[in-house]
Design goal:
alpha/beta; Rossmann fold; Alpha-Beta Plaits; 3 domains; globular; binds S-adenosylmethionine; 16S rRNA (cytosine(967)-C(5))-methyltransferase; RNA-binding; EC 2.1.1.176
Length: 461
């Protein structure tokens, strides 16, 4: 799968000098800071990606940091935005691979920017070995712009890597974290939960994610919409449950029909939620952890229901409203902690509840590769506690005979099967309804969809 924006960025020496270059002929003479490379150069994209990677190494959220950067750089071309994104995301997907090499070649941990830059360069060298010398030159230019005193070190390390390709392969193969590009504890969790498929799950976690669309059946017909997109150069395949899997990802702004609310971007795995909960016209439905509202909207597209959407984070709650407006849908949206039932519930029970709980996001790690670097094993128990509290609180608000769909985008058992087992042990009035003949529906990430877990729980009448 190709990245959304193929990186077609030129080396800095052949690029025209861009507006990012500091100083001008008319400026008064002063001590010159080293010039930034031109914006359309690989060196510039590497420099920006290195800063994003360095931020993550110090604990920053990648998506937030990237969005902040885009706001600060409104003049970037699509190519520059795409190149920076692709370099940063690819580098972070490669967890452990660069560090297996650096631990052999660099005696002391370099400053975060240089550490990030070396990781970006190593990832790019692995992706484009035929451009090895350009990659090294561009990495050195990036270092020269921000930390000129360390450009010789960057040059030396990367040239060493080029001279020792067999040794590099050996170091990476020896080390489990490098071989599977995931933290060791994570590998162990996946291996225990999915003994037959653990290597495929880890490989999917390092791949480029697919892009799927959800057709708004109130405004468009699936086959006709797929044909319209194909005619516009965006071919795709309709999957059995109605999701349209695009052959190639595309920027949302280039999707015809998006602004008109005929379609939304939603992973094919996430599109099972509305089908499995299957609300009927007139029912009272609660979407308890709703932002940004993808599943809320799908539920409303599928039936005329009375829906309450809850969300803890007020900024994220605002995104639900704007998504619903684009799609021509209506729901009551409330900012609330769904565990604080007395604070938001009017006492009228719900026929159906969607509990799409906060989780480790280990099933969508290829979209958020910073979580491989930031999560700790202990976080899983914290998520599991939070999930149990949410399930117990919501159960009070479900009508006798009603159903609750428990959803995570995790591949860890503590958040999935083990969580549901513990819930069933605590609630004698709960039974698990089989999904397609199985006790639960675990979708493992692959080329069609991300990783999700679904369990359907029914309250005794
Ligand atoms: C997995 S995301 C939901 C995705 C959403 N269902 C969708 O399909 O677009 C979980 C959401 O739950 C929210 N959340 C976390 N704890 C919550 C709580 N106690 N009450 C309500 N919302 C909560 C998070 O802020 C986050 O937006």
């Amino acid at each position: 799968m190709q990245p959304a924006f193929p990186v077609s960025i030129v080396p800095s020496s052949s690029a025209p000098r861009g507006s990012a270059q500091r100083g001008s002929r008319n400026s008064p003479p002063r001590r010159q800071a080293p010039a930034l490379p031109p914006q359309d150069s690989l060196a510039y994209a590497m420099l920006q990606a290195a800063q994003l990677v360095a931020g993550v190494l110090e604990g920053a959220n990648l998506t937030d940091a990237y969005e902040k950067l885009l706001k600060a750089q409104p003049g970037w071309s699509d190519a520059t935005r795409g190149a920076v994104r692709d370099l940063a995301w690819s580098t972070l997907r490669d967890y452990g691979r660069g560090d297996a090499v650096l631990s052999q070649l660099v005696p002391r941990l370099p400053p975060p920017f240089i550490h990030g830059l070396l990781l970006v360069a190593l990832c790019r060298l692995a992706q484009r070995p035929e451009q090895a010398h350009t990659v090294v030159d561009q990495a050195v230019s990036a270092a020269a712009a921000l930390m000129p005193g360390l450009k010789g070190m960057v040059n030396g390390v990367l040239r060493n890597v080029l001279r020792q390709t067999d040794a590099v392969r050996g170091w990476q193969a020896e080390d489990e974290e490098s071989r599977y590009a995931h933290p060791r504890w994570w590998i162990a969790e996946v291996r225990a939960a999915h003994p037959q498929n653990w290597e495929a799950v880890l490989a999917a976690g390092c791949s480029h994610p697919p892009m799927s669309l959800r057709i708004n059946r109130r405004r468009a017909e699936a086959q006709a919409e797929a044909a319209r997109l194909a005619a516009a150069g965006l071919p795709g395949r309709l999957l059995a449950h109605g999701a349209l899997l695009l052959e190639r990802p595309v920027a949302v702004g280039r999707l015809p029909g998006y602004a008109e609310g005929r379609l939304s971007v939603q992973d094919a795995g996430a599109q099972w939620a509305a089908r499995l909960l299957a609300p009927r016209a007139g029912e009272r439905v609660l979407d308890a952890c709703a932002a940004p509202g993808g599943k809320t909207a799908h539920l409303l597209e599928s039936a005329d229901i009375d829906l309450l959407a809850l969300e803890l984070d007020p900024q994220r709650a605002a995104r639900i409203q704007s998504n619903l407006e684009r799609l021509g849908l209506r729901a009551r949206v409330k900012t609330a902690d769904c565990r604080d039932v007395d604070g938001w519930w009017d006492g009228r029970p719900f026929d159906r509840i969607l509990a799409d709980v906060p989780c480790s996001a280990s099933g969508v790690v290829r979209r958020h590769p910073d979580i491989k670097w930031l999560r700790r094993k202990e976080d899983i128990a914290t998520f599991a506690e939070q999930q149990a509290a949410i399930l117990d609180a919501l159960w009070r608000t479900l009508a006798p005979g009603g159903t609750m769909l428990y959803v995570t985008c995790s591949v860890f058992d503590a958040e999935n099967g083990a969580q549901v087992e513990r819930f069933l042990a605590r609630h004698m009035d709960a039974e698990r309804l089989p999904i397609d003949g199985r006790p639960a529906f675990q979708l493992l990430p692959n080329a069609e969809h991300d990783g999700f877990y679904y369990a359907l729980l029914r309250k005794s009448a």
